[in-house]
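Deliverable D4.2, example record:
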Amino acid sequence: MSNTPDTPTYPLLLSLVQTAHAALDQLLQLLLQEQNLLTHNQIDQLAALSLQKHQAASVAETAGERLQTALQSIGVDNDIDVAAWFTRYAPESLEAWQQLRETARQAALYNRSNGQLIETRRQLLDQFVTQLASARGDSLSYSKAGQLRGGSGGSLSRDKI
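Output generated by the structure prediction step:
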């Protein structure tokens, strides 16, 4: 396969890179909002944001797949340094490509960080519920429905603590 696209491919390629960047930037903005909600203990707003984040991730994934398909169709596969390819064959798209890569890096960083915040919060809540049950003299178990309950038969809920 050739690594030199036909001239009409350049505008399409630039458009695909810009579309993927815009979609990923939208996801990044939602990840920043999620981190703000997590760090300011506004947990009740996370459910709605989670749906938006899922939709934005789907749009970004689709845009990325379209870009990858276009690159592969002109001979740019995973073994090629894409930035070097853009520099040589499509320099008008290089800056957009670099912005896309930076936004992808930031989105991955915030996604990982938010996941760690959520996991830490879950662990702290589990510890709190265990300590609460211990103070009451209860042992904790889970019902068949997955509800946390104390040894005296009463159920405990994180939502009510």
